[in-house]
Amino acid sequence: MKKNFKEIITSDKLVLVDFFGTWCGPCQTLMPILKDVKDELGSDIKIIKIDIDKNRELATQYQVRSVPTMILFNEGAPKWRQSGVLQKQAILNVIDTHK
């Protein structure tokens, strides 16, 4: 996953990574919100989900201490991060400022 992850985040599109846990209530709340964001932005952004229990190395590398944690990457560099649930418009606003 790590090599694949590097390829994904260094693409020429913005990439929003959602670090989540399957056991996490707020993570379940965030799922449909991220789907709505993807539906609205389409191919302008890539959204990927990383299960921290299956990808501990990545979670450690990016210092994910709580879930959900979202990190927005632009050409491989983290440009923004936030832990907790945000509403759709707040996420769209963040993405818009980094286009």
Notable traits:
4-stranded mixed sheet, 4 strands, alpha+beta, 99 residues, globular, Glutaredoxin
3D architecture notes:
The chain has 99 residues and is an alpha+beta fold. The chain has a single domain, classed as 3-Layer(aba) Sandwich (Glutaredoxin). Helices cover 41% and strands 27% of the residues. It has a 4-stranded mixed β-sheet.
Question: What is this structure's SSE topology?
Answer:
Elements: H1 2-9, E1 14-20, H2 25-41, E2 45-51, H3 56-61, E3 69-74, E4 77-83, H4 88-97
Parallel strand pairs: 1-2
Antiparallel strand pairs: 1-3, 3-4
Helix pairs in contact: 2-4
> Averaged pLDDT, please?
95
Q: Helix count, per DSSP?
A: 4
SSE order, as H and E? HEHEHEEH
Distance from N terminus to C terminus (CA atoms, Å) equals 26 Å
Q: What is the helix content?
A: 40-55%
Can you count the beta strands? 4
Q: Which structural class best describes the helix and strand composition?
A: alpha+beta
The unreliable regions are none
Largest sheet: 4 strands, mixed
Return the domain count: 1
- Main CATH class: Alpha Beta
Outline type: globular
Q: Summed up, what is this model?
A:
The protein is 41% helix and 27% strand.
